[in-house]
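Here we describe the complex-level prediction in full. Unlike the single-chain runs in Section 2.1, the two entities below were treated as one system.
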Amino acid sequence: MRTLTGRLRAFGAFWYDFVVGDDWRVAASVVVALAVTYGVSRTSVPAWWIMPVGVVLVLPWSLWRARRK
Amino acid sequence: MTGTGGALFAAVFLACAVEAVEAVTIVLAAGTARSWRSAGYGVVAALAALAVITAALGPALTAIPLDALRLLVGGLLLVFGLQWLRKAVLRASGHKDLHDEDAIFARQLEKARTAEAQRRGAVPDWYSFTLSFKGVLLEGLEVVFIVLTFGANDHDVPLAAVAALCAAAVVVAAGFAVKAPLAKVPENTMKFAVGVMLTSFGVFWGGEGAQAHWPGSDAALLVIVPVVAVFAIALTAVLRTQGGPGAGAAPAGAPTAALDPVEH
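The structure predicted for the assembly as a whole is:
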């Protein structure tokens, strides 16, 4: 049982590392940016600029955190 | 080939070439230090596993409605791309060791030489088998992900697959011609370019999937890619001025921390 749990945990850890990587905040920010884009697209305001602005904010933030480590 | 078709081919080719270089280094180490036959079995087994994964995921992905697919895949590509770009900027600015195939090869070789020999079934050397199996499978998973996401989004999985096969063929041929790790391939620069492409396509498709309408439609990519590239280069320049272990003069032969087969 413990071996199975260990394997499942290792499997989950592999996929977490594969998709999310070193900084979970980046993944969370992408989800938020997509949600905001969808929300704004329901209005009359153009929504295309939200994703690029998200990148402009998230990448330096993540780099700054990595540099401080 | 259309404009986006060309961009798709270039992005998939570059990404797959980078992954192939890393996989070839691992297989070369397993074959050189231990057993070429077992390493070969490992490669074949990993390719078979990848084929099964592709056959299972490919039709499933193409069955998803386009908007939902673009939202899901755009989001995943953007997360993936930002992680690549983050590491590439840290490496280029001297805040992270450069990816060095020579150092990785030497480390793998040393480990492989000291590992115990063990025969299992038809495999003469289990260590070589598992080393090359894991290397090819893990690097190959990224290739499968990139081929399927790019291909499905652009309705051109065959073109993405051809780009991946071309990259793998070129790298494998070069690797076995020189019988040494492909340390001269500008891998760190290629990783930077791949990060830019993945991020750009992620922004574009993620936005479209979330119902945003890009000015100029597909032509917006022609603006997004260079803007992301310039932004990443500017961030690298800023980080370089702030110093780091190797900032300013990034050491070409700097050792990497540890072999991570899925390191972007």
